[in-house]
Amino acid sequence: MGAEVVVEGLTKSFGRQTIWQDVTLTLPPGEVSVLLGPSGTGKSVFLKSMIGLLKPERGSCVVNGVDIVRCGEHQLYETRKLFGVLFQDGALFGSMNLYDNVAFPLREHTRKSETEIRRIVLEKLEMTGLAGAEKKLPGEISGGMRKRAGLARALVLDPEIILCDEPDSGLDPVRTAYLSQLLIDLNAQIDATILIVTHNINLARTVPDNIGMLFRKELVMFGPREVLLTSDEPVVRQFLNGSRLGPIGMSEEKDSAQMAREQAQAESGHHDGSTEDVRGMAPQLRPTPGLPERAGVRRRQDRVMRILHTLPPAAREGIIESLTPAEQSHYGLSSGLHRPDGSEPAVSP
């Protein structure tokens, strides 16, 4: 099972500019999480801070008892081995074929024989749908294949945590859909903790177990997918709908006067180019038939049911509707699940 990551009060600045402050969240072990946010909110900076490439000014990021922010170089080196990172561009070496690109971490960080390295590399290439492409150079393949090769390389050290920095960047919707399925399939097979930074709303609605959002230098929210997908928070609603109506502006957040003008325009019938309101639950992707069910699904259900009474009504309803009758019975839900008065369903302890 993947490692838990506990972030508390993390703050990062460049000179006098604060990128984000007091970020607190926990990535549950073996679950898939997504971090959303407008461009320029420091999502990639957050990933780099998690693995010690950048040093935050305050706070902690604890993995297996080691605080990435304060640990020594040796501890940091050892802890980084728990991470596999897929960078935006795949970060492949252009002069190496895919086989050597994927083998690079094994040759750099282990003393495995070339026979063992070959077994692992071919296994990861097959896992990411690249079997037979090992002799190709990065310049000879599509952007989607480069992403998958970068993911294969991120997997060769059997990481407990996989970080994906905008894996959909530069990909068309079809390739993004394939990559989304691949991430779910990988989670089913290796039970790693996965954090995905993305702007892609369809990916965010269908892939993760948990969703967070950065805005105005703060983490607006982080929690079970149902909480954010049913949220009335203005910035969340605007982002999910790709709308100009809301607090997010072209270069920075809007002031109240601009928001009031845009609201008046909307009420007068001016269309802002957004689609219909997409709030609400979308079905979550399941592993490809033939693969095992994701172990993280049951752990997540157990965790969410323990906190169900603390969640907003719309999120509670979304969670309950996602359960099968057998699962509802397992958790001791009463028969009056959707009461017209909006009262909470009964959940056994």
UniProtKB/TrEMBL annotation:
Annotated ranges, domain ABC transporter: 5-241
Taxonomic superkingdom: Bacteria
Keywords carried by this UniProt record: ATP-binding, Nucleotide-binding, Transport
Compositionally biased residues, Basic and acidic residues: 268-279
Protein name as catalogued: ABC transporter ATP-binding protein
InterPro entries in the record: AAA+_ATPase, ABC_transporter-like_ATP-bd, ABC_transporter-like_CS, P-loop_NTPase
Disordered, as annotated region: 246-349
SMART domains: AAA
Record-level Gene Ontology MF annotations: ATP binding; ATP hydrolysis activity
PROSITE patterns recorded: ABC_TRANSPORTER_1, ABC_TRANSPORTER_2
SUPFAM superfamilies: P-loop containing nucleoside triphosphate hydrolases (SSF52540)
